[in-house]
Amino acid sequence: MSGVLREERANGISALAGFTVAVTADRRRDELTALLAGRGARVVVAPALRAVPLAGDVQLRAATQAVLDRWPDVVIAMTGIGLRGWVEAAEGWGWGEALRSRLDRTYLVASGPKASGLLRAAGLAEHWAPGSEDSTDLVDHLRWRGLAGRTVAVQLHGEPLPDLCEQLREAGADVIEVTVHRWAAPVDPAPLRRLVDLVAGRLVDAVAFTNAQATQALLRAAGDDRDAVLDALREDILAACTSPLTAAPLRRYGVPVVAPSRSGLGALVRAISDALPPRARTVQVAGKEVTLRGYAAIVDGELRPMAPAPMAVLRALARAPGRVLARRALLSELPRGADEHAVEMAVARLRAGLGDASLVQTVVKRGYRLAVDT
Fold first, then answer.
1. Is the pLDDT of residue 7 over 60?
2. Which of 188, 184, 192, 183 is nearest to 45 (CA)?
């Protein structure tokens, strides 16, 4: 049937079929996109930031020299790729062997399971790693070991982590901050600006964040639409983060966040797959089961994608099943500038999209309603 995506009945509808998920990652975005698409999602790619290596940076060189001179008691690797980049930068200055020696002979802590795995892949072994990426566990462990008078080097990836570093200093540690990469705006800002419009218009179902800085970058890009973006994330759009550390900035804004207990892209995709389907509304209409997902309806097991206007009308009718909604009420659900003729066109397209015109009834001189079962 034209316009209908049929799923294998044996497998049912894919977990994310009909949903649109935005990806804000730059690094590993292709891998994350493939995982989401593999579960049926429509993916919008809009990198919020890009990582710029600092191999020739004066501050990184100075921080590395401080680590070599002062023999830190503890080195915290916030990201495995960042620590690997640090070693590579040191090798470029002729300090690679000396830095590796320091890392081998100090108490090396990974920020979480993800960083731990990448450290091992780089030939380094951590002495301890928390079970999650919550920095509170990390600080509590180091306090238990004793921080007073100790030197702690914190390898950062991107923007500073003032809360973490301040907690270490308050416990008596001398902290060396080693920033291996800095975050810069994406080369092409257009996809991020488009994502702001999609989120503010509630035209995506979830936004995936793989680092805390991306959340701030999205809000900076929003500008005057910042409140609209935050309201959408609080109310209708799922915010999904790889870890509690990534989720922290959004939670400070009162945004409910889904974050898997174990870090990693696979765990993130599973968390999104578990969270989105239960948010879909299902109504019984003229003997058929109709489930509303982001850009599609599932009608008796068939996924039927539709344009935004007919989906907006369907959502409005489903919020008040069986009630008659006037054209004026439906007009408010459509994009600005639409008129009552646009409502009629949207209803016509909705009936065609559902595959059964009888599901949406016209009540003469009053408006439209779903033919819900009594």
1. no
2. 192
Angle between helices 244-252 and 212-222 (to 10 degrees): 30
Output the six-digit token pair for 124.
């380094």
Q: Which domains does the chain have, with CATH numbers?
A: 20-49+186-279 (3.40.50.10090), 52-183 (3.40.50.10090), 281-370 (1.10.10.10)
Instruction: Map tokens 């500073």 to a residue.
Output: 160
Compute φ and ψ for 223, nearest 5 degrees: 55, -120
**Side chain identity at residue 306, one-letter code:** M
pLDDT at 160 over 70: no
> By three-state DSSP, how is residue 175 classified?
strand
Give the span between the Cα atoms of 154 and 159, in whole angstroms. 12
Residues linked to residue 292 through DSSP beta bridges, in sequence order = 281, 297
Beta bridge partners of 325: 368
Q: Cβ contacts of residue 298 below 8 Å, gap of 6+?
A: 13, 17, 18, 289, 290, 291, 304
pLDDT in tens, 96-148: 999 999 998 999 998 877 678 777 776 778 889 887 666 778 899 999 999 99
Local structure of 203: helix, strand or coil: coil
Q: What is the dihedral of CA 39, 7, 353, 300, to 10 degrees?
A: -110
* Helix axes of 265-275 and 29-38: crossing angle, nearest 10 degrees: 40
Higher pLDDT pick, 187 / 53: 187
CA 14/CA 6 separation, integer angstroms: 11
Check: CB of residue 259 under 8 Å from CB of residue 246: yes
